[in-house]
Automatic annotation (TrEMBL):
Name assigned to this protein: Ribosome biogenesis GTPase A
Organism field: Hespellia stercorisuis DSM 15480
Keyword Translocase: no
Top-level division of the source organism's lineage: Bacteria
Keywords: Cytoplasm, GTP-binding, Nucleotide-binding
Domain CP-type G: 10-178
Signal peptide: none
A single GO BP: translation
Entry's localization field: Cytoplasm
Length: 283
C-alpha cells in the first residue's frame, strides 16, 4: 500500500509549530497508546528542545494495560514525564496539573532565583491528527476555565486558557504531521484512523491487521466473530464476511464490507484492548 501526505499541510503545520513553541515552557505531547511510536513525529524532539516535556498516552482505554505501563516506563527512562489518560472519559486527567508542576520545577526554580514570582507555566498540546488533542483540552480545561488574551479592542493575539493561577494552556493545539518513515508506520496510522479513509485500500489494511492479530492476539478473532481463525488472512476475512452476513448480489461474500466492519470494530475498541507496537522493538 502506498501512503501519501500533502507537503502543503506539512509545511504550514511545521511553521505554526515553530512559531508557537517559542511562547511556551512545556510541550504536552499526545500519542495514541495503541501505537505510541508511530503516532509521534520524532522532529518534536528537535522542536521542543530546552522545553519541559510531558507525554500523554491517550486512548489508553483502547490499549492493553500491561503495555501502557511498559510504554510509560520506556518514555520515563528517556526523561519524559508520562501520564496514561482517557480524554474521552476523563481518566488520568485529575493528576495532570500536579504532573505539570513537577515537569516544570526547574523552570519555576530558575524564575524564582531571578526574582520572577508567580509567572504561570505556559503549555501547548501537540500531536498528530485524531490523537485526541481537542478532547484532551476540553477534558482538562472543563467548564471552569477562563480565556485570557484577545480582549475587545486589543490586537488579536494568542488565546490562552487559564487552568489555575499556575498554568496557562494555548487554546489551539499544535498539529504534528505524521511521519511515514516506513510502510509499517503508515499501516499503523491507518489502523488507528489517522490517515483519511479515501486513500486507503480497506481490504489490504484488514488483511494486514488480521495477520497481526493471529500472531500477537491469538483467539481474539475467533471469539469476536465466532469463526475459525486458523487459516490465512484472506480466509479469515471471508469467514468474518460470512459470520456477519456481508454479502453482495448472488450471495457472494462481500470482503470489502467485512474489511470495513472489522476495521471499525478495532478502531472503536470492540475487539478488546489491543496494543499494536511494543517497547522492546525500539531502542
Ligand atoms: P484531534 O483534536 O487530535 O484531531 O482529535 P479529537 O480530539 O478530535 O479526537 C479524535 C477522536 O478520538 C474523537 O472521536 C474522540 O472522541 C476520540 N478520543 C479522544 N480521546 C480519546 C480517548 O482517550 N479514548 C477514546 N476511546 N477515544 C478518544 P470521534 O470518533 O471523532 O468522535 P466521537 O465519536 O467521540 O464523537
Amino acid at each position: 500500500m502506498h501512503f501519501q501526505w500533502y507537503p502543503g499541510h506539512m509545511t504550514k503545520a511545521k511553521r505554526m509549530m515553530q512559531e508557537n513553541i517559542k511562547l511556551i515552557d512545556l510541550v504536552i505531547e499526545l500519542v495514541d497508546a495503541r501505537v505510541p511510536m508511530s503516532s509521534r513525529n520524532p522532529e518534536i524532539d528537535e522542536l521542543g528542545k530546552n522545553k519541559a516535556r510531558l507525554i500523554l498516552l491517550n486512548k489508553s482505554d483502547l490499549a492493553e494495560d500491561r503495555w501502557n505501563d511498559a510504554w510509560a516506563e520506556y518514555f520515563k527512562a528517556k526523561g519524559f514525564s508520562v501520564v496514561k489518560v482517557n480524554s474521552k472519559k476523563g481518566g488520568g486527567i485529575k493528576s495532570i496539573q500536579g504532573v505539570i508542576q513537577e515537569a516544570c520545577k526547574e523552570k519555576i526554580e530558575r524564575d524564582r532565583k531571578r526574582g520572577i514570582l508567580n509567572r504561570p507555566v505556559r503549555a501547548m498540546v501537540v500531536g498528530i491528527p485524531n490523537v485526541g488533542k481537542s478532547t484532551f483540552i476540553n477534558a482538562l480545561a472543563g467548564k471552569a476555565c477562563t480565556k485570557t488574551g484577545n480582549k475587545p479592542g486589543v490586537t488579536k493575539g494568542k488565546q490562552w486558557i487559564r487552568l489555575n493561577k499556575n498554568v496557562e494552556l494555548l487554546d489551539t493545539p499544535g498539529i504534528l504531521w505524521p511521519k511515514f518513515e516506513d510502510q509499517t508506520v503508515g499501516l499503523r496510522l491507518a489502523f488507528i484512523g489517522s490517515i483519511k479513509d479515501e486513500i486507503l485500500q480497506k481490504e489490504e489494511l484488514a488483511l494486514d491487521m488480521i495477520g497481526f492479530l493471529q500472531k500477537n492476539y491469538a483467539g481474539v478473532l475467533a471469539e469476536k466473530y465466532g469463526i475459525d481463525e486458523s487459516g490465512d488472512a484472506f480466509t479469515c476475512l471471508k469467514n468474518i464476511a460470512e459470520s456477519r452476513h456481508c454479502l453482495v448480489r448472488g450471495n457472494e461474500l462481500d470482503t470489502d464490507k467485512a474489511a470495513m466492519l472489522f476495521i471499525d470494530d478495532f478502531r472503536n475498541g470492540r475487539l478488546g484492548k489491543l496494543t499494536l507496537e511494543f517497547p522492546q522493538d525500539y531502542d
